[in-house]
Amino acid sequence: MIFLVIVITMANDVGEFKLIADYPCINHNENKLLIPGDDTLLINLYGKIDKIMAMGQGHISIMHIGGSHVQAGIFSHRLRQNFRNLIGDYTSSKGIIFPFRTIGTNAPKNYDMSTTGSWINAKCVDRIPALPLGASGAAIKSSDSIASVYFDLKSNEDELWQYNQLVVLSEDELKTTSPLLVHGSDTIAPLSFEDGAYTFQLPYEASNGCVIFKGAEYSPITFRGIITQNLYSGLTYHEAGINGASVPAWLRCKHFEKDIRYINPDIVILGIGVNDANVSPTKFNVEEFKANYCRLLERIKLVNPNVVFLFITNNDCKLNIRGYRTGYNPNTLKVEQAFMDLARKYNGAVWNLFRVMGGPGSSKKWVNQQLMQNDRIHFKKEGYELLGDLFYNAFVRDFRNIDTDE
User: Fold this and answer.
1) Which secondary-structure segment (H or E) carries 396?
2) What is the pTM assigned to this prediction?
3) Which runs of consecutive H residues, i.e. helices, occur in 40-176?
4) pLDDT tens digits, residue range 14-44?
């Protein structure tokens, strides 16, 4: 039980580490941030976090982009909770949200959204999306007179998940109408409209609301999501995941950087790659993969040149194509090196999930430990929560400059 004693000691000394159960499938020696390039951006970021923790001044915006690992909302919300605990009891918000159930797919459980009216939809995984997409990777469109979107941040058990500023990512075709925000007995008009986004401000903090689109029957509206934010010091953690999304899928989002302006991320966590690599090893072009990633990263840097990119390597998984379904995906090794190259170029960091899991073929052990689905691609709830704690511990180790094993 030496491992557990070490973890508890670190938790008492630092006060920020998450206790990790002693699963034999975890390679704890690999649970760290790898920084192949310059660390100046990271050091500056750590200074911003320290200022919030010490003086309660400032705000950190984190955006987590990926595929099904992120759309499930378990991994990302665990990280959201952990990062918020790191900065202390400052009001935080859940960032960008979208009514995934309206488009017939699974939704994160850390918030609720529902709609009224009739809607058509599009996602970035569509070859040719029928609607212009943005930072959520999805959109819905309605010409219904009763079109509305209700949301609840589920802060009844934790009052810190609230908002006092709302950005509705939407526009109508004729640009003749604007949405209204209804909260309780209050009906609030937008404070401003700029380039496909309506900004609302509340004189108090709230955890739910309803956005009503009046006049949609005359001027159809396209809705790309809501950004919930708080103007006080603290943290906002945005999760943007679409099942099956690859890097080219996110590049199809026409209004991506337009929406990112309202997010203005200090950190972007990138977990895109499993779907890109789900092809025959003879067809996977790692240089094309990196080139696509560079296009996406440059679009983000247009908004914030000092953003810190944290890359998560592909997890060990089964290659889901004919002839390879029984073995691990050899493309994962190429993606691992690609992320190191990208981190070096953009002065970011890599969390090597592939090695933390144990390397080639390790997903079998994670399945046996009831942490992973039998498809050896997706994790179970306990597995995603474990990843959130492991990633967070790797971040805190670098943040606190701790050079030791867990």
Assistant:
1) helix 381-399
2) 0.94
3) 40-55, 68-71, 74-87
4) 448 999 998 999 999 999 999 999 999 999 9
